[in-house]
Amino acid sequence: MIKSITIVDYGIGNIFSVRRSLEVASDKPIKVSSVAKDISSSDFLVLPGVGAFGVAMQALAEQDLIHAIKEHVKKGKPILGICLGMQIFASCSEEFGSHSGLDIIPGVVSKIPSKALDEKTLKIPYIGWAKQQISSANKNVSFLKDLKEQSLYTIHSFEFKVQESDHLIGHYDYGGNKITSIVGRDNILGVQFHPEKSGKLGLLFLKKLIKSSE
Amino acid sequence: MSNTPPKRLIARLDVKGKNLIKGVHLEGLRIIGDPKKHACKYYEDGADEILYLDIVASLYGRSNLLEIVQRTAQDIFIPLTVGGGIRNLDDVSNLLKAGADKVAINTAAVKDPSLIKAISNKYGSQCMVLSIEAKRKSNNSEWEVYTDCGRESTDLDVEQWACQGVELGAGELLVTSIDQEGTRKGFDNELIHRISSLVEVPVIASGGFGENSHLQDIVQAGADAVAFADALHFAKYTLSDLRKIASEYSIPVRTES
Lengths: 214, 257
Known about the structure:
The structure holds two protein chains of two kinds. By secondary structure, chain A is an alpha/beta fold. Chain A has a single domain (about 5-210), classed as Rossmann fold. Helices cover about 25% and strands about 30% of the residues of chain A. Chain A contains six helices and 14 strands. In chain A, the strands form three sheets. In chain A, strands 2-1-3-4-14-13-12-9 form an eight-stranded mixed β-sheet, with helices on both faces. A four-stranded mixed β-sheet of chain A has the order 6-5-7-11, with helices on one face. In chain A, a hairpin with a 2-residue loop joins β13 (about 175-185) and β14. Chain B is α/β, with parallel strands linked by helices. Helix content of chain B is about 35%, strand content about 25%. Chain B has eleven helices and twelve strands. Chain B has an eight-stranded parallel barrel, surrounded by eight helices. In chain B, α1 (about 35-45) runs parallel beside α3 (about 65-75) and α8 packs parallel to α9. The longest helix of chain B is centred in the N-terminal third of the chain and has 11 residues, at about 35-45. The relative contact order of chain B is 0.15. The interface of A and B includes residues 50, 131, 175 and 202 of A.
């Protein structure tokens, strides 16, 4: 039973829109917190984030939230990571040096390939409405299949390369390269796209996710 | 296989004080109405992004945008880019807190290019849009950078400035042709072609849309996104008209379902 949804506020990115979209998509109370106790005892955690990997991890560490997030995950309660919030699920990142991540989904964050398969230069950051392909439906969340061929707003220069292929749930095509779009295992789901910025489809995604987590 | 994301169709709203306005060549302003009301309509109609530009903020050294941004972000769930009168990191922080996703900087970046680097370091390059107002020089084959909404010339060359901006960390360029702006005579295709071939970040073309073929021309020139203003504000076109035109020309755009 999800009594409320908690957004982790660690000073990174636009919490305003994430909060508003959850308010519209769900009738649960939405809490915003940077207190470890609230986060480890939350029913449903949303980890947003925009910017640099190292900065985000440092902010979580300074506010003593790394352990709290891991505690929440260990209890088997649902967590949604959005954009950078999803990338920091990784073991580590190669963005501006080497940084450790939360390490709750094994893998590495690295730069999006700058060349298409036909050797043409690809523009980076990728900015646009990426058409989703669902690679694996291993995760017990059937509505993710509904995202197939749907366009969701995506903006990034780095991507999450998962170590275990069954943690890769969705991707999109960029110049013939498969770019990671959705990762997950058990109670953990991470999306590269911004559901809070993807119009009605994004709101519907949030609604279905919360419902399926009940 | 696709080498580009779907082309984005952006609704551009120039704001003066509390009003949505529209001019020609960034001059001769006409009041149209409440910016939020229009932004919400464009969101409902399927715009890919909303762009707010406070066009007198740099003249008076203040911005009215915060309150409008806050009201708008309550009800639209697509990216919101905001520009006009942003001078420092505090201004950026306030706009992001109010619900903006990206900031567009022109005048302050020209005065102090290191601001581009400071913003992209702190908030990521995806947040830092360099806004360039370009006017053809008398030789007709080069462009000069203007600031303060087309009021001040700078001696800066547009192509050089675009490259410098990207090097400093701009993640996207918004390029407005002062010559074409508000004329409905088509975009400055050559300008966008030159810049788009020079830089490896997305380029938003702004200024000049008036008829269907202009969309095809500017996408062929290399625009990654296209901004529409008076065509939408005066209800000459709706977003779904623009989507239809795109599909007639086989231009990839987001499909809403």
